[in-house]
Amino acid sequence: MIYLDNAATTPLRPEALEAMLPLLTETYGNPSSAHAAGRRARAALDEAHETVARCLNGAPREVVFTSGGTEAINLAIKGAAWAGKAHGNQIITSSVEHHAVLHTVQHLEKFGFEPIFLPVDRYGRVDPDQLDAALTDRTVLLTVMLANNEVGTIQPVEELVARVRRHKGILIHLDAVQAAPYVAIDVQRLDVDLVSLGAHKFEGPKGMGALWMRHGTTILPQQQGGTQERYRRAGTENVAGAVGLAKAFELCTRERPETVGRLRRQRDRLRDAVLRVPGVEMTGHPRQRLPGHLSVIARDTDGVSVSLALDLEGICTSTGSACTTGSTEPSHVLSAMGYPDEEARGALRISLGRQTTDEEVDRATEIIPETIARMRAAAGDLAADPLGQEVGA
Ligand SMILES: Cc1ncc(COP(=O)(O)O)c(C=O)c1O
Asked: Per CATH, the architecture of 13-252 is what?
């Protein structure tokens, strides 16, 4: 099997598993317990906070561990919206966000919040001038993704932040779940208030995430219970998960420059081969995009069928977001980028990962273009002869 769906999830890296195992077996104490077993678990949890903070250039107490990217996003958006309700009710986001953001913002609409979904260009980028025009004295939050999961486009975050900072009292949340493995996140330089991470995108454990929140930022906790995570996220902590996330994030941060260079080379090789097939075009930004991410539209094909055909050849890919697989709805991302449903149907996402080898890319470079070409030819035959009759029969 050649796994080229790293935007959906990545394998747990062995170093993270190794770091987690003692926390699941020997060091099983509750970090809130005062005894030795509890203190050992607390020390491991504290170290995980320190590691994640170091990778982001933040402070350990600014890190809140969660059950994944989705929970971090919910905590950031709902927490910031409710905390800011006295000042305003407007939340600005983009129309290409992950459902974890879109559905959370839409949910808040039921409680009197007013969402604004900024349009994007053909490449999936928000225009900073349009953000400028949308900002009002009722705006309490901008929530935007650093990189898009379906088309890999990286948003011009620095310019967007600069526009928001001309106003007072607006919080900025960055959904960095998809970007974190490949884009360095320095929270001081980026000047944001909240950053969401999901461990399984950078070879950490699934069901584990983190929200970084700048010291002094007020958010309303979204679950009530104990005093864990400095009152911001109640519930006994998943210490093993936090340690696994921290280990994976630390290694990913250290190796990032080398990983990015290799992935870019591998992706470009695959891209050149795939784009040689007639009727195939790349979606998303040609340069401002994640390094191992290749998203295309193959005209006159159905992405689901192409992805299934590739699966039969032993290659795992997807049509877009893993969260919408099985849905017959066209991608909201491609739709916002201006692709008609008929074209968006042919979407295919190929996402390489740190563990992808050159040999796998060699094989994929042969199989993927061949499969797409075959599917296009079959679709053409069907269109010309829908009943499958022999020509001339
Ligand atoms: C951009 C983005 N945001 C949020 C999420 C949700 O993260 P999680 O799967 O950790 O809940 C994903 C996952 O695909 C994502 O790509």
From this structure: 3-Layer(aba) Sandwich (3.40)
Tokens 């109640």 belong to residue: 234
Encode pLDDT of 73-115 as tens digits.
999 999 999 999 999 999 999 999 999 999 999 999 999 999 9
Distance 208 CA to ligand 1 centre (A): 11
| Pocket perturbation via mutation, ligand 1, pick of 177, 195, 331, 333 by most ligand atoms within 8 A of CB | 177
Q: Of 149, 150, 160, nearest to 93 (Cα)?
A: 160
Q: Ligand 1 atom 10: the closest Cα is on which residue? A: 69
pLDDT digits (tens, 9 = 90+) for 326-380: 556 789 999 999 999 999 999 999 999 999 999 999 999 999 999 999 999 988 7
pTM reported for the whole predicted model: 0.95
Check: CB of residue 125 under 8 Å from CB of residue 153. yes
Average pLDDT over residues 279-283: 98
> Which amino acid, 228?
Q
Report d(CA 63, CA 65) in Å as an integer. Answer: 7
User: Cα–Cα distance between 131 and 161 in angstroms, integer?
Assistant: 10
CATH numeric code, 257-381: 3.90.1150.10
Judge if the beta carbon of residue 353 lies within 6 A of ligand 1. no
CA distance 343 to 297: 7
**Tokens found for residue 242:** 């936090």
How far CA 226 is from CA of 32, 65, 67, 229, in Å, comes to 10, 14, 16, 9
